[in-house]
## 1
Amino acid sequence: MARVIVEVMLKPEILDPQGQAIARALPRLGFSGVSSVRQGKRFEVELDGPADAAALDEVRKMAETLLANTVIEDYAVRVEEQ
Amino acid sequence: MSAARVGVVTFPGTLDDQDAARAVRLVGAEAVPLWHADHDLKGVDAVFLPGGFSYGDYLRCGAISRFAPLMDELIPAAKAGLPVIGTCNGFQILCEAHLLPGALTRNASLHYVCRDQRLRVERVSTSWTNSFAEGQEITLPIKHGEGRYVASADTLAELEAGGQVILRYLGNPNGSLNDIAGISNAAGNVVGLMPHPEHAVEDLVGAPSTDGLGFFTSILKSLVNA
């Protein structure tokens, strides 16, 4: 059993109006010193077996096929230490 | 000649399939219901992907519909020249399926927009826009929260150079790059747009115009001439 984290973020050049709205809300709530916020998605993928190279390749394929739209999003895959 | 047969696809969460089918019938064609879970295009001459919230817009708009069994049939058929139009959620599905370049993202304003929208028809040499005049200004309803068209600078340049921008907003409602409301593939058989032609075909229901009819008469004309 292993848990693999896939993080999906809009590419830097793609406008993220949700992140901007959060950034604008923070000072109103008394939080200062934030220059920008970008919002993304986090997927926790539980594997039946170990997170070996083959399994990670498979997760990358999942990200490429379904979890991210690579036209507008980047993704990162990492194994979470249990 | 028998009536042209236009397939109208229903996914779970599709909303505008009945209006689309009605518009198809209004211009004298036969509307053929297509079900997302079937591996069957029923031999139709063209396909309409209507708007709505297929699969609840889970993950990304159109991201799950794009893998529906029907799409396994539709994607190769569209690549081989079958005329396909997607409006609103249908446009999002066509982009997710990579039948059209770019993507639709959250409106810049973060607000859902629902209004009558002025538009300019930019390209008339497609299966779905040949009834219009180039530069013609039309009014269609829009209703979407994720209609901001984005693509890489290279893709945008290609679309503009190749005349693949078919429809532009007059007064940009969502922050779409280059005011893009609709595009086609290079061949002109696959078209996607955020506005709703199927909601603007009859005066009786209070539509802002009947300008939407042009998309349906266009496909009939291109099928007769094919």
Note: Residues 22 and 74 of chain A are 21 Å apart (CA to CA).
## 2
Amino acid sequence: MPEQPHEPEGAIAGTGMGAAMDLGVSEAETLEGTAGGPGGTGPAGRPHSLWSDAWRDLRRNPVFIVSALVIVFLVFISLWPAAIASGSPLKCDLAKAQDGAGPGAPFGYDGQGCNVYTRTVYGARTSVTVGVLATLGVAVVGSVLGALAGYFGGVWDSVLSRITDIFFAIPVVLGGLVLLSVVTSNTVWPVIGFMVLLGWPQISRIARGSVITVKQNDYVQAARALGASDSRILLRHIAPNAVAPVIVVATIALGTYIALEATLSYLGVGLKPPSVSWGIDISAASPYVRNAPHALLWPSGALALTVLAFIMLGDAVRDALDPKLR
Amino acid sequence: MLLEVRDLQVEFRTRDGVAHAVNGVSYRVDAGETLAVLGESGSGKSVTAQAVMGILDMPPGRITGGEILFQGQDLLRLKEEERRRIRGAGMAMIFQDALSALNPVISVGDQLGEMFVVHRGMSKKDARAKAVELMERVRIPAAAQRVRDYPHQFSGGMRQRIMIAMALALEPALVIADEPTTALDVTVQAQVMDLLAELQREYRMGLILITHDLGVVADVADRIAVMYAGKIVESAPVHDIYKAPAHPYTRGLLDSIPRLDQKGQELYAIKGLPPNLTDIPPGCSFHPRCPMAQDVCRTGEPPLYEVSEVRGSACHFWRECLHDRDQ
Amino acid sequence: MTATSEPILEVDGLVKHYPLTQGVLFRKQVGAVKAVDGVDFTLHRGETLGIVGESGCGKSTVAKMLCNLERPTAGSIRFKGEDITRLSGRALKAVRRNIQMVFQDPYTSLNPRMTVGDIVGEPYDIHPEVAPRGDRRRRVQELLDVVGLNPEYINRYPHQFSGGQRQRIGIARGLALRPEIIVADEPVSALDVSVQAQVINLLDRLQSEFELSYVFIAHDLSIVRHISDRVGVMYLGRIVEIGRDAEIYDHPTHPYTQALLSAVPVPDPEAREHRERIILTGDVPSPTDIPSGCRFRTRCWKAQERCAREVPALAVPAAFRDVSGPAAHDSACHFAAEGQMAAARDEDGNGPG
């Protein structure tokens, strides 16, 4: 569709100057564009769907390949940490405290004499668990609430939107300090629960907007004219077409949840020892960073790399799923 | 001569391969003349115009050949800076969708005035006065008050008038109007076309009218170039073409308009679909849809045969086509 | 195709006002968009009623109410005598089977994530009583064949088709439940000129094949004339003139219809010099603020004081009440009269476009 990809919509585009003459003010369709007609597309043309197009883009995107490899590796070590690290992360020998690299401990030892390499490897499990589960929870709660509000509209929509606004006003770290400090359980669950509690409005807002956009398509009207039930319309017609932005935002958010877990653990309200978490290790290593920088460096590096990998993956997915960038 | 396009070729790289959007288009426009470029979506009519204006998105577009002579200068050889000076002052464009072509957060007066500030170096105050004058020219009621209004405060027809005012602000020698009235209602469409035609006469501009509407063409054009699959298949003075088209595609378009004496009968319909531009049929690109196609059409690409001094048709059987109509 | 049979659909006093509200939680109504403001018409079995009008005249809203996609604010829509605006649940679902819609934009009216087979077969999922499960695939393929598509395309996705083909898919979906009425809202306006004729021919053929009644909504006057038995002209939420196609096109008596017809570009360059055109001034008033009396008076060259006071009724105007002839049809104008152009058009026997 050669006439279609970038229909210039400028004012007197000729002048090419000043905001008033800005090209591409909107994506409005012109007759020659998408609304117009078959153009050069015969029945054989463009046999792709959004997903297969996206997948094709992703496979060729080096950012995606690198971040996906990192993530696959992370998932692997969080499932089978023993495969690459021998010994227990809790087996520490104070005699070796702050020692540098040694046999079986390529990253050296931390202030408690624990093997930094082993702890960093085992810490991945916490990060990946928190990241994945919090994202799943947020995505499920957020998209269900957002989709219902967007689809049914009216009072529920207004109420939900206001609640969303309130949640957006809560500072995440402060909220974590307050809420999690009363929790005694030393598992990942309170942390995940807290993230879902504060995270869903972000997704619900995206899902709501996406559903409202999709709802306006004629195929939704067509289904309604056939007498389709609300649940059929939502599940079969709206959800598959509205899910892409949610996936994008959720993937990017996954990275930030991992960072948030580390932050909360660092502040002492997330996981606490004897749990193994990069946040705990960073917290523990920071007082003697001058003497043993390696104890801080490795968990921080692993954390940064993990967060970066997920955010880059989200970015790549967004580029691939956003038809406007094509 | 004002503008001459010679053998222009434009292609687009797409994920499905190279789309040949414009394949050797030549046309000319004189001062004071209206050339209608008629075609369906994908015919290359807009791409040609964008190449002339120099607003083609490159990439994915690429001009692979040809010349665009504007007042004797080949635009394709000019530097971007020089072309920019020609745009607006030498040639201007009117778009279909005035709402998206105007900036929603700047008042129309400022948008009109900016032309004068940028190109003529006028002061803001003088530019504002000019803007009011222009709005009066395109007959926007109460222009002096409305000059401060924003685009959304105007109706569709009024916005298209503002677009026209903007295009004509610097009195360009050539105006390209891309489906200027397609988005408008019939009664408003008539107002806007009339205004455009009148201003064109007044300024003696060359006008290229890009459209798919055979009715609009018949109303205002002097000459028509019919495009199909990136080529001009017929080019003729407007009266000749409606009387007796010399290309089966043109004939098909004219015949598919519902007419009173055919009520209750089937409409004539051109069979099939416009071709995929990444895979244009060999020979005459219209042959798979053509009722007159012979073997030669499948292999030999027809040149633009000279039907008369002012007329051309890219059909091997243009004589038969003309003849059919006479009977 | 003349329809003298019993009415299948009677629309009476149909109104749709969309409230304009202010405030977030405590909404208060500050006005209303009067999209449809009192529309009456009847549709007979086997007939095509064309509805023309410019954007914003409410014609699409009428279509939506006919298909129960919008609830009317007031008025009734009787299908075979039963008011469908008051139905709900099972009874509504049953009526829906009989009134189906064909949409304007073939690019947004088909779910891009569903195959053609799923799209055309969905009506059977929703109304399982119509076709036994094992029979559906065959029926879907039959439908594709009927609308001129290769039945083997059943597993393809909409984006693999061109606009015209997609519109055929939409029509096949509309036919699946064997409806008696099809409401077509601008079914060809998004298509290329050369493809429009194909779709119009298809609709024409299907009408006789399936004994359908059409409500055909469009802004293209020549296409409406080609396909319609009767035509209603809408302006600002009301029908201002309605009658048989020849009555409306050759003997319009409402000034708006006259202006509308004269503004249509005629594909004949010979006509442009000696053609009488009425160019209306100004724009259509906002549907939130409809003029008093006759709603067309703000743009009408015939308007007088009476027009601001009295709402003209949609009836045969007094001037034509005693004559029989094509000019004697319903027209909502106090000063209804045939224009000169009507006479001129009679001579060459050719309507606009």
Note: The longest strand of chain B covers residues 17-29.
